[in-house]
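REQUEST ID: PR-0412
SUBMITTED BY: lab tech R.K.
PRIORITY: routine
TASK: structure prediction, single protein chain
INPUT:
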Amino acid sequence: MIGHKDKVALFKKLADGDNLSQGYLFFGEPQIGKFVFAESLANYLENNIFEPPKRILEELLVISPDEKNLIGIEAARNIAHFLYQKPVFSKQRTLIVRDAQCLSSEAQNAILKIIEESPNQSLVIFIASSEEDLLPTIVSRLQKIYFFRVPISEIEDFLVLNFLSKKISREKIKSAANESFGRPGRAIDLLTGKDFDKIKKIIKNFKLENIDDIIDNDLIDKFFETLIIELYKDLDNNIESLKEVFKRLVLIKRFNVNKKLQLKCLEGAMS
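STATUS: complete
OUTPUT:
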């Protein structure tokens, strides 16, 4: 795990004293370590080791969106079945709901009833970017834990320890850490993923024919992040372009407008 040492110490203390709440909302930016932390907590409860598990945990259920990017009512039924069984290898059964913003309204209402009547031996953790991703009635029943960005120095130290021996240069590691936005997952993607090389080429020659490639391959978030970083490198000359980028990003994220149209408008403004 990278960073969040204060939270590790806190949750160890809570777990050791049997003082964990029954429900938490871990929220903050993507790729910042929320899921890794939740999984490590479950491992600590079952094996007394606060790190990502190396084998399947008997007392952990992870719910993730399906291929349609949705968590539906069937997931709620699985949750109820799991939580109401007595734990064997741990004091608690842990449920982690990844990308909780993908829960359907029907699923959220069903899960709300489960939370209200959950057994004492259950621990429920929702993972989302924001408190607004869930119904207020659910959020009100959860302890809210915000995950901050990780210091660049900690990310760089982790990358040196885990990737320098794999013939990745220290210069590339330093660049990945500096361009990570304080998000460990992004730093690892920059070193290991091919998507970022493709995106940088698209940004360098941003034309209409590349727009379908961005949308069809679900690269839009990475595209905007990388574009913003590149523009910030020369802020004096790129301030107007940055304003246009943020305008299009807000429209896409907040108002769910046509992505292709917004990228076309962005291409026109930046050409």
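NOTES: The CA atoms of residues 181 and 245 lie 17 Å apart.
REVIEWED BY: pending
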